[in-house]
Write a structure and sequence with these properties.
29% strand; 7 helices; 9-stranded mixed beta sheet; 2 domains; D-amino Acid Aminotransferase, Chain A, domain 1; binds pyridoxal-5'-phosphate; 309 residues; D-amino Acid Aminotransferase, Chain A, domain 2; alpha+beta
Length: 309
């Protein structure tokens, strides 16, 4: 899961060497978690390198800055352009792209002074599957976390903010300590929410269930892609509140995220999903997702942003 460093990083409009991309120990975000970010993937496709749902990711990033009222020096268009530059200059054919917007050196008062701008870093590098390459085929073992997700009107779950990942750290590290691959959290009311870095989907009797955004889930771009792609498959879709014990009784479960992609779950709290039988529909959805890059299904949504290398 280590990342493969590249040569250059984009920092506030300048292209600098990876080694020179350093920030002050007095960075506000380091002390108070005041950052928002995006993880985006660039894939090798039948038409060359493509950034998957680039504009949707940058829109979500700007929504995160809007929620936290971060003032920005750069437009959405300029950031999109900068991502192309950083992929080109690092000569990457495929990549994981990380964009971080944070409050920099503005003093240590919690409320930043007037007339500051948030800093932006854009990096791109190779990063293998977040839950390990075997996970896509073999599935992962999960547990319900003892930690609940953030409650509505505390820390906003619609923003992809650095501070949210303290909750993710508790959920994920508890699972690893107990010998599982990933933790799944319930929301503050006890309904199923999501994994530490992934949305969750459940299949029961040819119905695809996923929790609504009101269950404190991140509005995942992969989640939205799966909801759209499965319209090609004979499945009903239901966004509904999900009880914990329902997870023990379903046919298939999978998790989705940019870093993890589409990962089957083989057990939860030690209970095998569908007695460990084949995960036919999950496999079909994984394939449909990859067909976008092989050209077997048409990109009718305009999700692929082509890179001119
Ligand atoms: C908490 C959380 N939920 C869901 C997701 C999935 O979102 P996406 O598919 O946009 O990567 C992520 C990953 O970014 C995440 O961190």
């Amino acid at each position: 899961m280590s990342i493969k460093k590249t040569n250059f990083i984009w920092l506030n409009g300048d292209i600098i060497k990876w080694e020179d991309a350093k920030i002050s120990v007095m960075t506000h975000a380091l002390h108070y978690g005041t950052s928002v970010f995006e993880g985006i993937r660039c894939y090798k496709s039948y038409k060359g390198s493509v950034i998957f749902r680039h504009e949707n990711h940058i829109n979500r990033l700007y929504n995160s800055t809007k929620i936290y009222r971060f003032p920005l020096k750069f437009t959405i268009k300029e950031v999109i352009n900068a991502v192309h530059i950083i992929i080109n200059i690092n000569k990457l054919k495929e990549a994981y792209i990380r964009i971080l917007i944070f409050i920099g050196v503005v003093g240590l008062g919690i409320n930043p002074p007037k007339n500051y701008y948030a800093d932006i870093i854009i990096s791109a590098f190779l990063w293998e599957n977040y839950l390990g390459n075997n996970a896509k085929n073999n599935g992962i073992r999960t547990m319900i976390s003892t930690w609940n997700k953030i409650k509505p009107n505390t820390i906003p779950s619609l923003a992809k903010a650095g501070g949210n990942y303290l909750s993710s750290l508790l959920i994920s590290s508890e699972a690893r300590r107990n010998g599982y691959d990933e933790g799944i959290a319930l929301d503050s009311l006890g309904f199923v929410s999501e994994g530490s870095g992934e949305n969750i989907f459940i299949i029961k009797n040819k119905i695809l269930f996923t929790p609504p955004l009101t269950s404190s889930v991140l509005p995942g771009i992969t989640r939205d892609s799966v909801l759209k792609i499965t319209k090609n498959i004979n499945l009903k879709i239901k966004e509904s509140l999900i009880l914990r014990e329902f997870l023990y009784l379903v046919d298939e479960i999978f998790l989705t995220g940019t870093a993890a992609e589409i990962i089957p779950v083989c057990s939860i709290d030690g209970i095998l999903i569908n007695n460990g039988k084949r995960r036919k529909i999950t496999k079909k959805i994984q394939k449909e997702f990859l067909y976008l890059f092989t050209g077997k299904i048409q990109d009718k949504w305009n999700w692929l942003d082509h890179i001119n290398l």
